[in-house]
Amino acid sequence: MSSKRLETVKLTARFKLNGEVDESLFETYKAVVNELLDYAHSKGITSFKRLKSEKYHELRQKYPTLPSHYIYTACQMTCSIYKSFRKLKKKGKVKTDKPLLKKDVIMLDDHLFKLDLEDWTVRISTPDGRL
Q1: CA-CA distance, 40 to 104, in Å (whole number)?
Q2: Is the dihedral of CA 129, 62, 35, 76 positive or negative?
Q3: What is the mean pLDDT of the chain?
Q4: Mean per-residue pLDDT for 69-77?
Q5: What is the residue range of 76's domain?
Q6: Structural domain tally of the chain?
Q7: Are 31 and 91 in contact (CB under 8 A)?
């Protein structure tokens, strides 16, 4: 008797942007993640579900033009960063009191981008539409 097992594969890729994406998208995303990090740290939240339920609607109102999945992925990224921070803090490998995202990084899920392997292009959802 064989049992089928479903597995999720996560891919990480770096893309070079041709200057089409406004830098403010990176700044906005960083601001959202850092706001979430402050909140998660102050409340001790490591659960994605809890963080999303407590902050998602507030952030949707604060950033109405930002596609909703940016806030969703920011919650995912925040939980990952905060969990890692707590582990490192316990081991004494962190010098700061709270976590902070400094890099210009955006976590995209399958709702925020479309990959065209034929043309080797990626279309990304932005507040100004897809680029």
Answers
A1: 20
A2: negative
A3: 90
A4: 97
A5: 23-130
A6: 1
A7: no
